[in-house]
Amino acid sequence: MKFNRLAEKFSNVNISIKAKLSVMITILFFLITTVMFNIMFSHARLRAFETTKDNAEDLARMTAFGIRAALDFRLEEEILSVFQLSAQNEEVIYLVVEDLSGEVIAAHNLDTAKLLQYSQMNANNPAVKGDSVIFIKSPVNFDNKQIGQLYLGYSLVATNLQLDEVRLGVLATSLIFIFLGFLGSLAIGRVIAIPINKLVTSFERVSEGDLKERAEVKSTDELGKLSESFNAMVESLEFAVSELGTSNTLIRESEQLYKELVAKLPDFVILHRDQKIFLVNDAIKDVMGYDNEEVLGKIFLILSHPNLIR
Questions:
Q1: Residues 240-253: tens digit of each pLDDT
Q2: How far apart, in whole angstroms, are the C-alpha atoms of residue 272 and residue 178?
Q3: Residue 307 to residues 194, 291, 303: CA-CA distances in angstroms?
Q4: Residue 219 Cα to chain centre, angstroms
Q5: DSSP assignment, residue 214?
Q6: Domain, as residue range, for 239
Q7: Is the pTM of this model over 0.85?
């Protein structure tokens, strides 16, 4: 119902059909492009986060594998040297390894890890995505048994920056498509408006009395059928006007002939309409002594009062 009301209001807007078509097609193109933009960006963001999470999990597994022996023997320096190698990845925010009792054995950027509440973030899930950090928890195994837990904080800043670039690129592409859609809507509106404008011109010429005007019929679509109906209407109108003209001519000729016949009658003949004399023959001169011009247009009862005629 709301759509019907909006459509009715829009149809009553005082702009050309070409403009209305351009607006409607542009709006439709904008809506389609917006939906496509959201779908494409959502898909790109999902893939980017999945790729980043996979990289973080791979790094955590490799780091856990590198420190497994050192953790078993509580060799903090060797663990930190492995952490230093892993931290060469600029996306690494912190690395923390704990034993099974929860005691921190070694850490890289421990204060930052505590500030981000690393252990709580991974309490129920080994991989948790925050606004700018992915929190990874990976077990450290040695001799087929778990001896500790590795926590890794992986930055999403670079990923978010890449997504911003993707967003700008997709947005720019969307704007280009919307502009091309607008140009296309103008072309479509022109294609539809030209035959309509021609038909309107034909209507105007017929309304001015040119019954020889005909609309061009170049297609079999709705506009073509409308043009055919217009031509049929004008032909019928032209025939009716022609017949009316012929009838009027015959009436005038019959009336003239009738007047001539009445004028030649020897008897006194007076014809009146609404009590006013409109025809009298020359016999009135002989009978009453009046000329035709003296009694035409007079009320016929005045003939009984000759003094009122002159």
A1: 888 887 877 877 77
A2: 78
A3: 73, 14, 9
A4: 26
A5: -
A6: 211-247
A7: no
